[in-house]
Amino acid sequence: MPLIVEPVTRDPAAPAGSTIDSAEPGRRVRPGSRVALTTPITTVLLLVVLAVASGVRLWHFNDVGYNSDEAVYAGQGASIAHDAALSPFFPVFRAHPLLFQSIVSIGYQFHWGDWYGRFAAIVFGVLTVLLVFELGRLVYGRGAGLIAASVMAIMPYHVVVTRQVLLDGPQTFCTTLTLYLLARYAASGRRFWLLAAGSGMGLAVLAKEPTILFCGAVFAFFALAPQVRVRLRDLLLATAVMAITIIPYPLAIAFSGRSRTGGNFLAWQLFRRPNHSLLFYPLAVPSAIGLATCATAVVGLVIRWRRRRWTWRETLLVSWVIVPALFFELWPVKGFQYLLPCAPAVAVLCAGALVLPTTPFWSLRLAWLDTRWLPLAGAALIAVSLGSSTFRHIRPSTRATFLAGSGGVPGGRELGTWMRTHVPEGATFLAVGPSMANLVQFYGHRKAYGLSVSSNPLHRNPAYEPLPNADNAIRNGEVQYIVWDAYSASRTRFFSARLQTYQSRYHGRVVFTHTVPSGKGGTDRVPVIVVYAVRP
User: Is the dihedral of CA 275, 278, 284, 290 positive or negative?
Assistant: First the structure.
């Protein structure tokens, strides 16, 4: 059955100088009724947006050391590169596929240090901004593309995550590429774009396996968009292309003899206790994307619905947001960065709302105002609100509390430098939890256990090794140092208190302390990492 589509950019039969308004298919726009964006102007403005996107991500990007997740993914990259110092602590196969970790491994091949992992993540972030421009231009026109790219360039949510060695930035790049290819398919009806979208989805799964949820968004789009009809054969071919793209990872696990790794991790995820309430995403994510951005996107959707101008474009973008958002809202485990792949669709919807043509009533009320500049004014207001929030987030962190996925951990790198200089090789550390234990192993190259790691395999990440009897280990001299940190203590007061009991019982002596500024003006300092030497 042939594909039914609507005109997207130009109508060949339209009068000279007239175009089809891509924000309102079928509506002709007279020359001069909008701010004209020629190709040279568009190119210059896009380069400015990309420069801003690069600047806010590169600014002081490596001043603060890695957090726990960054240490794990960078450690995997080091193991892929056969780094002798880190390979004993970080196995290649853990919980996720290895697309981004393989890219990170290049830095360890050339001994570039921990800056390269974050730089690679930043490159993916900036390329995502470019993709958002292309997506916005395709569905709503050049102006919308520039606005969407500008929103994405300084969106706190995207900026913060893509400044870290996390899988979510590359995953978002791949899912945005898939979304763009789907839009190309809906606009043209060519099978090539659908097969390309299948390959893009496969790459996204190789970046991070929860991407498979977006297959639900794809099927929801085809089910809810009567304008776009897809042959079952083509859909099956695209699915096959996706499977072929993904298959190297399970084959690598099978040939490495680590087949149980994925099963153990799945069992742990299924039986994990909720780490946040149901209000976590509604409270955390809209403010990170930008309340003005989200509100503008919603208003634009309402206007299009009321005007009966809802097209496959809105169905595609809304499906891309709603399906994964509903899943992660119901899933007990919630991470700050998990919904990042939805952010590009929100940015494009926001831009689409800003380029909506004004109604006759609105034009009458604003007869004294040149309404061609309303999209630019709205975009500027949103940019100011996003920019101020982003600046607060990218300043070097000095917080004594920490939300996983929201930034680096002050003191971890400094702790590792001290350990490699003052602690003998072969020494063993006991931390409150696995997060600080990962930093001890990554930066200090010393074995570390997390006190909160459960001995029950169903209640712990299978990658973490428990210490069944910490008291006995200290008494027998198997553990020589205890690490207390404020970040873990704020999340698990019980194990923090228990660790302090051990340091008191076994004559703990402070050998290292890292502090951060506190109070007005930062005149006071509070300890965030304290290392104790203990003895039986």
Answer: positive
User: Worst-scoring range by mean pLDDT, 459-468, 482-491, 523-532?
Assistant: 459-468
CB under 8 Å, gap of 24 or more: what pairs does 188-192 form? 188/5, 189/2, 189/3, 189/5, 191/234, 191/237
Nearest alpha-carbon partner for 404 in 338, 501, 477: 338
- Sorted by sequence, the CB contacts under 8 Å of residue 453 that are 6+ apart come out as 433, 434, 460, 461, 464, 465, 466, 467
- Single-letter amino acid, residue 55: G
The model scores a pTM over 0.85:
yes
Show Cβ contacts of residue 347 under 8 Å, excluding neighbours closer than 6 positions: 132, 136, 148, 149, 151, 152, 155, 293
Identify which of 311, 289, 291, 292 has the alpha carbon closest to the alpha carbon of residue 301.
311
Confidence of residue 492 (pLDDT cuts 50, 70, 90): confident
Residues 6+ apart with CB under 8 A from 221: 182, 228, 312, 315, 316, 319, 320
Share of the chain above pLDDT 90, in %: 64
C-beta of residue 170 within 8 angstroms of C-beta of residue 207 = yes
73-96 CB burial, b ≥16 within 10 A, e <16: bbbbbbbbbebeebbebbebbbbb
Q: Please state, in angstroms and rounded to a whole number, the distance separating the CA atoms of residues 108 and 117.
A: 9
Please list, in sequence order, all residues whose beta carbon lies within 8 angstroms of the beta carbon of residue 253, skipping any fewer than 6 positions away.
93, 259, 261, 262
Distance, in Å, from the CA atom of 177 to the CA atom of 186, rounded to the nearest integer, reads 14
pLDDT level of residue 259 (50, 70, 90 thresholds)? low
Q: Rounded to whole angstroms, how far apart are CA atoms 130 and 298?
A: 23
Among 29-43, 57-71, 348-362, 470-484, name the one with the lowest average pLDDT. Answer: 29-43
DSSP-derived secondary structure for 182-226: HHHHHHH--HHHHHHHHHHHHHHHHH-GGGGGHHHHHHHHHHH-T
